[in-house]
Amino acid sequence: MRITALTENTSRRGLPTEHGLSLYIETNGIKLLFDSGQSGLFAENAERLGVDLSTVDTAVLSHGHYDHGGGLKRFLELNRTAKVYMNRCAFEPHYNGDKYIGLDTELQGSDRLVMTHGVTPIGNGMTLDDCGGRERVIDPGSSGLSTERDGKRIPEDFRHEHCLLIEENGRRFLLSGCSHRGILNIVEWFRPDVLIGGFHFMKLPLDETLADHAKRLDSYDTVYYTCHCTGEAQYAFMKPYMRRLNYLSCGDTIEI
Hints:
Elements: E1 2-7, E2 22-27, E3 30-34, H1 41-48, E4 58-60, H2 66-69, H3 72-78, E5 83-87, E6 94-96, E7 99-100, E8 113-116, E9 119-123, E10 126-129, E11 145-149, E12 152-155, E13 163-168, E14 171-176, H4 183-190, E15 194-197, H5 208-218, E16 223-226, H6 232-238, E17 245-247, E18 253-255
Parallel strand pairs: 3-4, 4-5, 5-8, 14-15, 15-16, 16-17
Antiparallel strand pairs: 1-2, 1-18, 2-3, 6-7, 6-11, 9-10, 10-13, 11-12, 13-14
């Protein structure tokens, strides 16, 4: 498996960045786009990195927030064939305070979108899983975010989020855009060989609670490539507690 970060909050290669995530993945003989950042920047960086988005076979949207699906319209313009898999709740309204952080609802009518629910195999060793009905190790809360249902604003429950499990050469790779359902829960549920994605720790203080989270994550036989909403300071704080923790910046390519 080969993964290139097209958009992420940081870059070690001098590429332009934004608060968002987009990964280009080559696995099991296919080309996959996982998320599209918050703008068209992922496409500009793809060109800089020699990635031809028109040849992508499949796209996956991890959840319905703008910093992961804001570039979706641009992708649909550049690529005329790939289906885009997203959770059936992805177009629900999402808010951070009064700020709308959801998707462009004008895209809802596209026949390129495939809406999923529960556990959904999508071919080539890939399965989408919205983690519904599983017992939680820890309650991650709503992170102060909210959604709107039946005309009422309620705390976010992240039912629009799903993880992508890829099985390749006898190994299990899990991609989790922001891990809003709780990274500790997700690792316990899937126990992957490799996990790629954000931990959503960026607002957590650098204290004993975060150290305990790091130690618990390290207790699994999982290799972590984290990014985006984990937080740079939080990553640096956790690094001494975790033997297999790595950071994936915009422009980085890893082969695993």
